[in-house]
Amino acid sequence: MTPEDTESLLRQFLRDAGVDESHPDLVAAWKVFQRFAVVPVECTRDYLFFQVGDGHPEHGLDGYFDFTREFEMRGPSGDEPVWFEQVHIEFKVPPPLRLGVATITRYSTDFPNLTAFFAAVEQLPEFQAGLRFKGFVLTVYHTGV
User: b/e map of 91-106 (b: 16 or more CB within 10 Å)?
Assistant: First the structure.
């Protein structure tokens, strides 16, 4: 599977788990993300990150609670320049709502394995705040960065 294929697979996993985009279930989406994290994807390497923050509502920018898998890519010979692609399960916080949390990012590469990464994210006060929050808007997308 290529990185471009990951969005449709992730959407299918979410549907299979009963996640309704109009009434998003953060806990179910997190479990889907954990399952999706180990699906093989054609890339040089990949890693996960979790990011959360209130954005800038005064400028009309949504807050976010985002599960991301990033793919490092190279051309066929492996010598071409590197580029990155990402797939996101993003829970947006539309203004004027706010999560009331600090902006943070946690990378799976900072942990010995995915189990440790997932456990560390779940312990974050910012993650716990997201579990209590009502009003998320779910978006799932693939992008180049």
Answer: bbbebebebebeeeeb
Q: How many CB atoms lie within 10 A of CB 68?
A: 19
**Coil, helix or strand at residue 34:** helix
* pLDDT single digits (tens) 5-32: 999 999 999 999 999 888 899 999 999 9
Q: Note the Cα 8 to chain centre separation in Å.
A: 15
Q: Which sign does the torsion angle of CA 96, 101, 105, 106 carry?
A: negative
Q: What are 54's two structure tokens?
A: 């209130």
User: Rounded to an integer, what distance in angstroms lies between the CA atom of residue 36 and that of residue 52?
Assistant: 20
Q: Of 77, 68, 7, 70, nearest to 43 (Cα)?
A: 70
Could you identify the residue written with the tokens 């471009």? 4
pTM of the model: 0.91
State the amino acid at position 135 in one-letter form: G
Per DSSP, 82 falls in state P
Dist CA 131 CA 27 (whole Å): 7
Q: At what angle do helices 125-132 and 114-123 cross, to 10 degrees?
A: 70
